């Protein structure tokens, strides 16, 4: 059968449309499957206004260090079967002048005792965080010249940031939460 206006076969077009409709019925929705025995972890920076900061002199500016690579810690696989309640730990991340982490210090609330399995969570934090990198913190000293302001000296400096890490498993499956309690 052909259409009068185009002279093309309607029969072939009908088969093509039927085939597309049949294939559309076979399409599956994408399903996310989490790997078994893997917990997820969230983390966030803690801002402490009382923490010492660099004081800039007149004619100085700084470039804020930015995270370059920040893999999250992995939930300790040996603890997943225990179905522990959400665990939040704080750590001070000390970064060298080159932007690489040089030390990770676990922070405890004053008077608080370490929760069960704290060593395994702390080890997971240390393993991940020691791989973190940042752009260096740069302090620039400017000078006025006949051509305008000019950078006279650029120094990179070490810095530290505090983070809260929350490890959680719900119904035997990993979940991510930003609730630091």
UniProtKB/TrEMBL annotation:
Lineage: superkingdom: Bacteria
Name by which UniProt lists this protein: TonB family protein
Organism the protein comes from: Mizugakiibacter sediminis
